[in-house]
Amino acid sequence: MRASALAFALITLINIPDLAAAVYMPATLKYDRMIAQGPTTRQPGRMAKSLLLKTRISSATATSSGSAVTATYDSSIFTLNSSFVITDVPSRHGRYASVRSTQLTPAPDGYERTLYAVNGQFPGPLIEANEGDTVIVHVTNNLAMGQSIHWHGMLMNGTQYMDGVPGFSQCPIPAGGSFTYNFTITNQYGSYWWHSHYGNTVADGLVGGLIVHSVNDPLKLGQDYDEERVLMLADWVDVLSDTVVAELAGGGFDGSRVPPQGDAILVNGISVARINSSCEVPIPPEIQVPVNKRIRFRVLNHGSHLLLRLSIDQHPFQVVEVDDTPVYGPDLHELPIAVGQRYSIVVNTTEGTVGDVFWLRANAAVASFRYVEDGVTPTTQQPTTQAWTDLAAANSECDDLDETNSLTPRVAMYPPESALDTHVLSSAFGTFVNVTGQSNTGFGFNNVSYQNQINDPLLAQVERGQSINSSLIANVAFDGIGGGDIIVNNLDAGIVHPYHLHGRSFFLIQGGSWAVLRIITDTPGVWPLHCHIGWHLAQGKMAAIVVQPDAVERIAQPWDWSNLCAGKDAGAWGPD
Ligand SMILES: [Cu+2]
């Protein structure tokens, strides 16, 4: 154990100077070239809210067979409201949603397990809003544990108390309790999602789409596509997340230190693709589409581990949005999508006639993609189509799309020309000793594996002028407003990590196992930077980015937010 910890420390020391040198040359060159070409022709920087740091995991193989177990769900969750009025006049009373989490026992992949549903649905309700709207979501927690909802991709400028991360930006909503999230969407639009940020209970079903429309969006219904849908993909484990996390912290899950890759792949909450199982499986989920239309799918990977590769037999598609950035993207046969990422693709349904049916694949044949007319299903025949012959092999590198293809933003964006501060976060698997003196294997940043002071949120600590305890979480601070660089260094040979930063977009300079995230430090708060592989996060892979601590001290806590912490044991430890 000691030797292993030392090895990680040595790698850290050796790596950082090399990294700094490697990083700054390309950044400077890129910047010079942009200036030289002038403002009308220079290439905008890439902007993203999640990034994938390379190395690799092996994808699972899956088998499929149709059977009698059916699952039903509300299809409106996956179809955007065609009568939604896109306007720059904010909704007068805000966009209200009510969210009630309860425990159910359905069988999304043919295997019955406990699931946490929202309003009785899995996935939960789709929220649509306009840029400028205030979103008000009343959450009632009927589960036997604390909960929270995070609004993935929302900048939360001035509303950092609504970011929904227990131990960071709030105390958990207690079992039987409620809380109202209230935030205004400013200066952003595109495809987002919401999910629980309590432990890895997002893997138990607490997830849904969040779509922000805007008159400023260059992608327009009627002009670029004829209708739009949400396509939610995920790996799915047949046991509760608590069990997985506890076993990983102990001897390993199913005897393995490697987190589960899923027992099934879900498409819009249903699966036909069970992995390594002879269980009876449901009939494939079905995506019904009209013929001769351009259909925009807002694709989300809400899983806990696998990078999924989406394809539709005989249907190439064009990528038009990356996270929430509209792009001129490539025509693809296959889209790689890591956990937490969103892409919009436009699929032309011009490959056949009514009744034709094709496999939709996400690492395996997982859904029927069926041509229908007026919502009438002409046949229930299962697809017999063949996969594209150029799909990536199951064990191929987990490349992010922008590593292999050119993605040009439709609206030019420019990174800050310089950074006021630069901070390095090196992340690695290792053995860490927690506050109680217990050794655990897990993940850390800068040799610290996150320990969650769940009832004393970091935001409250900074608000009262306290500095964050660096033995509990790696943390860095940007004091002023301007450009800021976060160098993320992935020291784990053989493990891919899709990192996610809350509260801010970043421009990305990437070099394989390291990346420079250039941010604009204009959103005061204490923002999580973490791996979106939920099992890695549960093993401590979380760091804190403090932005403008002085401003944080000046923004008052909402009264109902303070109530979540009132009377709670401030010394309690929560799940990461
Ligand atoms: Cu990870």
CATH class of the domain at 2-57 and 411-565: Mainly Beta
Number of strands: 34
Estimated structural class: mainly beta
Report the sheet with the most strands, covering strand number, pairing sense and barrel closure: 10 strands, mixed
What's the tally of helices? Answer: 7
The parts where pLDDT drops under 50 for at least 5 residues are 1-73
What is the straight-line distance between the termini? 23 Å
Radius of gyration: 23 Å
Q: Shape, please?
A: globular
CATH architecture of the domain at 2-57 and 411-565: Sandwich
CATH topology of the domain at 2-57 and 411-565, by name, is Immunoglobulin-like
What are the bound molecules? copper (II) ion
User: What fraction, in percent, of the residue positions are helical?
Assistant: 10-25%
Q: Into which percentage range does the β-strand content fall?
A: 25-35%
